[in-house]
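Re: that backbone. Tokens:
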């Protein structure tokens, strides 16, 4: 099931640009007393915005290594060296803002579910009747049913009996089961899922309600026992409940000796394809045991 976050987090980046400069004039540069590999340094300079970050310039008047070449006096006007340095600093920072989801947001979510539930209960603006066992009826809305179920959408879009008569005959389905499924379509919740998962699963599969089907499978997995695994396996096989089937087969593989002794196991004779699948799993188990 989806879980609602308790807060939203937003990130944004700030890029600040700071600059500072220094002009350093060195008089009588060619006659500086420093020896080779001795340096002089400028006064420190900094940006007004970042006072604790300072820079200095260093220069070796007579070079860092002994080498020949032109003298400074031949190159510098008035034997004066002027150095200009400009420093540009980009300071990037990322800030996150956490915005808690307020109670009003949660109420809005619950309110939507409640409103759709009330709409279903009120029968207001309904345009289709779902007729269950014993002619018990549920008045519903084609748009909502179609938005949630691709099977029902196809039924109402095409020139089928249900579209023409605005009535869907589900007389083979017990009213309380249909009621739970339609309530789920409107509200995304199924109050009696725990006690009716095995009854709701076939309908969820029939009408392509994948999330409801998955919830049924998860609930039925907790019910897999020595005396229930056969019926659950058959149910999962018939209604393409793959997660439930996979779990049940793994359970059977471990407890096969006990399961085949139960009276429920006899029902497997009516499902030869499923039986062959299970026997195949047992065979692979025996092969693996021999290899070991």
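Recovered sequence:
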């Amino acid at each position: 099931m989806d879980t609602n976050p308790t807060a939203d987090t937003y990130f944004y980046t700030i890029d600040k640009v700071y600059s500072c400069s220094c002009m350093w004039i060195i008089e009588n540069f060619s006659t500086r007393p420093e020896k080779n590999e001795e340096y002089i340094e400028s006064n420190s300079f900094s940006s007004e915005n970042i006072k604790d970050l300072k820079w200095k310039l260093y220069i070796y008047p007579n070079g860092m290594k002994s080498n020949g070449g032109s003298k400074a006096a031949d190159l510098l006007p008035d034997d004066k060296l002027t150095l200009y340095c400009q420093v540009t600093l980009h300071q990037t920072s990322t800030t996150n803002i956490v915005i808690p989801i307020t109670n009003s947001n949660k109420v809005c979510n619950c309110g939507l579910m409640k409103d759709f539930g009330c709409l279903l209960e009120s029968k207001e603006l309904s345009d289709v009747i779902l007729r269950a066992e014993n002619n018990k009826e549920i008045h519903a809305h084609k748009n909502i049913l179609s938005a949630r179920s691709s099977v029902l959408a196809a039924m109402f879009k095409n020139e089928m009996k249900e579209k023409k008569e605005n009535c869907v005959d589900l007389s083979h389905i017990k009213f309380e089961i249909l009621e739970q499924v339609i309530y789920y379509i409107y509200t995304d919740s199924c109050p009696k899922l725990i006690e009716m998962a095995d009854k709701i699963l076939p309908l969820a599969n029939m009408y392509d309600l994948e999330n409801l089907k998955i919830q049924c499978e998860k609930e039925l997995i907790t019910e897999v026992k020595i005396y229930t695994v056969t019926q659950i396996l058959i149910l999962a096989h018939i209604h393409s409940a793959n997660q439930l089937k996979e779990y049940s087969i793994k359970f059977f593989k471990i407890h096969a000796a006990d399961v085949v002794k139960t009276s429920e196991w006899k029902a497997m004779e009516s499902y030869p394809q499923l039986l062959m699948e299970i026997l195949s799993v047992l065979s692979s188990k025996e092969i693996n045991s021999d290899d070991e």
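The longest helix spans residues 103-122. The radius of gyration is 40 Å.
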